[in-house]
Amino acid sequence: MNTDLDDPRLTAVGLLAEAYTGLMNRFAAQFDEHRLSSVEFEVLMRLARSPGNRLRMTDLAGQTTLSTSGVTRVVDRMEKGGLVRREACASDRRSSYAVISEAGMQRLDEVLPGHLELVQQWYVGLLPPERLDQLLGSLRTIRDAVNPCAVAGSEEPIQPAA
């Protein structure tokens, strides 16, 4: 059995986890100020950046860190708060869309300037442009391999709701 605890593969995974945890900790206080969890922010961002400001619930699950049932619970909570709404899928009665509401867009508009400042200060601003481009390319390669559903629904043509 290999017990090489200095294996660079362990270092690579550890550094990624530590960087992610550190960033999420920096973001948490700002999300709290705006009465959002990090998951709710992620849902709002995914919906706002998607065609028609909406995604099928299954695609939203694939793009986030949530299971299908987890997305259902978060969308239920966000719908009660007026941040999103559901729309029926015209082509598949079993599916529904989560759609960002005007209140959700307004909340995102309130959060985004401070969030972008934190992203600049603690992430992208720490790297020169060429290293940032390399990092983003590397992260996309890894993401596409380990989570091919991460862009599901992002470029689908939108079917009008019934």
UniProtKB/TrEMBL annotation:
One of its GO terms (molecular function) is DNA-binding transcription factor activity. Keywords: DNA-binding. PROSITE patterns: HTH_MARR_2. Gene3D superfamilies: Winged helix-like DNA-binding domain superfamily/Winged helix DNA-binding domain (1.10.10.10). The keyword DNA-binding applies. Residues 6-144 form the HTH marR-type domain. GO terms for biological process: response to stress. This is DNA-binding MarR family transcriptional regulator.
